[in-house]
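hiii, so i know i said id send this last week but things got crazy w the move. better late than never?? heres the sequnce for the chain we talked about at the cafe, plus the structure i predicted for it. fair warning i was half asleep when i ran it
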Amino acid sequence: MSALWLPHNFARKNQRRPPTLRKFAIALSYSEINIMTYIANRQQPLSVQTLAQAELQQYITEQAEAVAPEELTTVEINSHHFEVYAGKQLIAYITYDNTDFVTQRWVVMVNGEEKFRHFAISKCHRFIDWHHKDGTLNPTVSGEIPEVPTISEICFYDHEALVDGELVASISFDSENHEDLYWRVLVNNIEIFRDTTSAKCHSYVKQQYQQGTLPVQQLFVEPCTTGNEIMAQIADECEKHGLELLDDGVYRGDVRLGEVGCTDGNWWVIRASSVGQQKATCESAIAGVRVLLQVEVVDWDELLDKPFDQLSADEWLLVMESEPVSELVAA
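okay and structure toks below
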C-alpha cells in the first residue's frame, strides 16, 4: 500500500477548535466589554462628585474666612481703662471700678452699659473674645466702619471729639454731684450721657459714632454781626425800656445815658458818667442797655468795701468806672 503524501500544514489548517474553547473565548470577550463599560460609567460620576465636593469645600472655606472675627487688639488709654478693637471697630472697653466694697473691680462695658465684671482683667478679655466670636457682644455695624473720633483736650475740664477736624461731641466736667457721675457728653449743648470718668465718656462717644447712633452735631454758624443788625438789637432793647437810640448814644428823654456797641463780635458799653469814657465789656445788647439803666447815684465807698466775690456783674462795671479805681489804674 503506497503512502499518501500531504502537505505538512494540512492537519493544522483543517484542525478545528473544540466547541468549549470557542465558547470560553466568546465569554471572555463579552466580559472585557462589560468591564470597560462599567469602568467608564463609574469614572464619570466619580469625577462629577469630586468636582462638586471640591466646590463645596471652597465655598465653606470662603464663608469661614468671611465670617471669621478679626484678631482683637487692646489699646491702653490709661492704667484703669482699656479699649478693645476688632480691626478698626471699638467693640468694648474695660474699666476699673474703684467703688468701695467692690471685689470684682474690672468691668466690661459696651455703649455705656456694664456687660461683665471680674477680679481678673484676663477674664474680661476672654469674655470679650468669646462673645465677639458668637456675635452677642454688640450690635452688628452694616457697611463701612468709620474711624473712631479723635479726642482733643482743651483743658482738664473740657474735651472735644473730632472727626476730620469737625466737632461731633463735647465732654465736660460737671462739678454738681449726680451720684458721682461728674463727666458728661454734650451734643448741640444737650446732655446725652454721663459717667464717672472722662475715658468712659470718650469710649461711649467712639462706639456711638461708629454705630451711627450718635446724634448729629449741628455745624456752628458764626452769628451775623453786621452794623445794621447790631443797631437793630440795641434799638429793640432801648424800645423795651422806653429809651431812644440816637446817633451819639442812648437817651432817656434829654439825658444821654451812654453808648452800647459791638466790635469784632465783642460787646461793650460806655456810661456817660464814667471817668474818661472807658469801655466796659458786656455779653450782649441786653446786658449793655441794662448797665445804662443803673442808678447813677452810687455809694462808691460801699461798693469798694464790699467783698469781691459778692459783687454782681453790674456792680463790677460800676466799680471799674469809679473815680478812685480809675486813678489807681492811671497811677
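btw The first helix runs from residue 10 to 14. thought thatd interest u
miss u guys!!
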